[in-house]
Amino acid sequence: MKSFSGVPRKNAAFFVVVLLLCISPLLVFAQEVGRIEYLDGIVDIHRGGEIVELFPSDIGFSLEALDTIQTGPDGTVQFSISTQKRRGTSVSVGNNTTFLVEASLDPGGTKTRIEVFTGSLSLKVARLTGREELSVRTESAVMGVRGTEFEVITAPDGGVLVLCEDGSVSCQDQNQREMIAVPGTGVEKVPGQSISSVNVDPEEYGDFRQKWRETRMEIFRSGAPVFFRAYIQQFRRTEPRFSEAYAELEGFDTRLKDYARRSSEGPSSIGSGELYRFRAEISPSLARMRSIIPLYRQTFFRLAELLRYYQESGIAGDEVIDGVKVSNFFRNFQQSLRGERLRIARVENWFKLYRGLGGEGQESLMDEFFGPGEGSLLDEF
């Protein structure tokens, strides 16, 4: 039996052990940002440039900055987020969810960001200090919190719903319009509309959440050709740029890993001048990748979600986009699905290794916020 990541489940535990033994010398600089406290079903993680499946026996597994985690149709995971002194935030992740954890833990303060590509998650955030920040980003909205309990739900049409159980959550769209979610007042951002508030009795959150998902699914089904066209065309625009940047960085793979290994052996194992010259040499390639991977990765994971819905319904299969049938595109996309995820995992690992070498300025794989006019591809429809 295979997992959704393509690794046979019966061999995955052995694969995890062998992989971690092989790559552990390269990850001595890896920055722990949290630990898994519970998991069930199919869950995997990008680690060391590979896709590693996790099991209930992996409770306690550490999460590192720039980790991407994905849950399958039956997968759930709960993890804690570390700050400099405590583990004050708990995150519960639902089925069919893909997200990235980013963090900066330094004397100037703690910044933690979670980018949700698909699916849903809920957070219980302890009261943060003035030097701690936590935010959640989706394709079309950013949520910033201090201390609260809330959930973020995304839909296949690009819609986002934020429901708050306690405290308050600041929600902004790509035009930096702000709405506040509090108990009894949620926030919604759907394609083609401005961010808005929705009134809902906290005791009816469950029913409201279900009806909201059903409504967004109906909208998705009725407009499937529009959704498919937007993301397929975006994928075709971004994939060549990603591939070009990937090929450049791949040329540094052996040397980057060698420098990481040598650095792990101690400060005297590599000269500061030598390391400085290498960082200067690789930085332009990292910058080019940094400019494309946020958009490419969001598009890729959204298409992976749309593939799942297409396989379940077969809708719009005969639709022709730029001379290619949707059915043919998704067939080819499915065949390349694991290979593309591996490329993304390797890029994340290259950035992680570069960060461990003391590289600055290009280590983040997230935008600070949206660029001018940036947001959901479907806002224009």
TrEMBL record:
Gene3D superfamilies: 2.60.120.1440. Residues 67-169 form the FecR protein domain. Pfam families: FecR (PF04773). InterPro entries: FecR (IPR006860). This is FecR protein domain-containing protein. It comes from Marispirochaeta aestuarii. The lineage of its organism: Bacteria, Pseudomonadati, Spirochaetota, Spirochaetia, Spirochaetales.
